[in-house]
Amino acid sequence: MENLIETIVKPLVDFPEDVKIDVEENENRIIYKLKVNSKDIGKVIGKQGRVAKAIRTVVYAHAHATLKKKVFLEISE
């Protein structure tokens, strides 16, 4: 799942080396915490959150097809 998120996000940003993903897993959910450079946060979120919503849609669809847990994606700088 981390590879999928990186594959989507790295082409969008100016500092791909600053893209980091932390994983927090509980018994019934997984939280992926995406961190990007503060200059790139606007590119990842997009106008009115459209890019972030699209990223979450792809990640959630992949998780629904492959995992049996709830998946959440948090974006921060």
From TrEMBL:
It is found in: Cytoplasm. Keywords: Cell shape, Cell wall biogenesis/degradation, Chaperone, Cytoplasm, RNA-binding. GO terms for molecular function: RNA binding. GO terms for cellular component: cytoplasm. Its main location: cytoplasm. One of its GO terms (biological process) is cell wall organization. It comes from the Bacteria. InterPro entries: KH_dom-like_a/b, KH_sf_prok-type, KhpA. Gene3D superfamilies: 3.30.300.20. A probable RNA chaperone. Forms a complex with KhpB which binds to cellular RNA and controls its expression. Plays a role in peptidoglycan (PG) homeostasis and cell length regulation. Belongs to the KhpA RNA-binding protein family. Forms a complex with KhpB. HAMAP family: KhpA (MF_00088). This is RNA-binding protein KhpA.
